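S.,

Sequence below, as promised.
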Amino acid sequence: MKKLTNPLFLIMGLVAGFAFTAQAADKQTLCPIMIEDEIDTEEFVEYKGVKVFMCCGTCVKMWDKNPDYFAAVSKEQAPQLEKVAPKDVKPMKQLFCPVYTDTRVHPKSPFIEHKGKKVYFAKTRAKSRFEADPAKYEKNLPK
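The prediction came back faster than expected:
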């Protein structure tokens, strides 16, 4: 088998790879976790063979905690998930953190019982802030 060592082939490969990443990023502009933040093309996950771009490493870590759930609820921000997202995963009634209101929550997120209902948080810091002053954040809970 002959190796392709011609620099032209290497350059063509790099350009094709960059074009693929740029094309995928063109379709997705917002992070599927922090839905108001723009993506960073260097921060992404591979989900069932599809690249999903995030805004930061924190969102990559959050995605990794429950990828099937996030894939199912993030198709608006990441349309490339439409073909691979699980159909049997249903969104929770509470989609977002009451403290960090643009950040998604999922069934494995930290939570507390508040007025007889589970309240989910994007991270433990948000949970602590809510517990310190629930009245400040209650307006952000689903009705």
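DSSP finds five helices and four strands in the chain.

Coffee later?
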